[in-house]
Amino acid sequence: MKRLILVILLVGLALLMAIPIASCTQSEPKTFPPPEGYTSWDEYYNRNEEQTNQAPTQENKSSSPEAFKSSCITVEYDSLERNTENYEGEAVYFQGEVIQVQEVGGDEYVLRVSVTQDEYGWWDYDDVIWVNYQGQRVIEEDIVDIWGIVQGRISYIAVLGNEIVLPEINAVYLEITTIEPVIVNLSASFRITDWEQEYYEYSEEWSDYVEIYYEIENTGDAEIDYYKVYFTVTCKGGNEYYDWDNGSGVSVAKKLSGHTMIDVGGKEVREVEITDWELEKY
């Protein structure tokens, strides 16, 4: 019996040693697949020159950058996606956020760029163009200005197996844009409009809670998305109690009324004041 167990253990050890240890191999860099019809990025970029204008042409660059840029038209993404063929050969301008980069080698790149911003400043990852680009290194989350030529539509198979079709643009000029932060004056004034604490004559006791009514006025130049206001309640005998209230959505030059209750443990309230507040703009 012991000999059988030893044989089983030796066979199991041999099998384990034969299995390659995948966890020790280095993972591939994050890329996205080459266009449909090509087995590799090398094949895509080594295709016959008669079949592509991937790089900016000398004709495009023969005029000054200012002249070419001024000739570019601005196109809504929906129009470009729906009527791509109507724009083939057109010089267009887009600004967007780089969401994916494929480094081909040297200074050649393929970029996927989101070109539509919503009202809150977020880039729409459904409105994406394919950009062939040669120049300085670009990385994900860069904001770029693109002046280029519409080539048509290009497709590739995503990791999940679905086909993705995007408008394709050859960048003649591309600049990484520094977005200056928008500085807003976020300010407000607060005041207590009233407060009350109920007194029970039958038991000659004060209520455990004091009710506070207050008002906030937006005195800045941007909407207050969220505020937090702090109160100090002073009771007879000098005891102090602290609490806060919050609210949201105070438009510029508008007022908003608020109400809160603070537990004072049945002590008689003598004074209520606002001691501090916080304002946020999302």
What does this structure look like?
With 282 residues, the protein is of the alpha+beta class. It has helices at 2-18, 41-45, 58-62, 65-71, 77-82, 84-87, and strands spanning 73-74, 91-105, 108-114, 128-134, 143-157, 163-176, 188-196, 199-200, 205-206, 209-218, 226-235, 240-247, 255-263, 269-280. It folds into 2 domains: 41-176, OB fold (Dihydrolipoamide Acetyltransferase, E2P), CATH 2.40.50.140; 188-280, Immunoglobulin-like (Sandwich), CATH 2.60.40. It has 6 helices and 14 strands. It has a 5-stranded mixed barrel. Strands 7-10-13 form a 3-stranded antiparallel sheet, with no helix packed on it. Strand 8 (199-200) and strand 9 (205-206) form a beta hairpin. It is elongated, with a radius of gyration of 33 Å.
CATH homologous group name of the largest domain = Nucleic acid-binding proteins
User: Biggest β-sheet: count, sense, barrel?
Assistant: 5 strands, mixed, barrel
Give the rounded overall mean pLDDT. Answer: 84
As residue ranges, the low-confidence spans are 15-30, 48-58
Number of helices: 6
Secondary structure tally: strands: 14
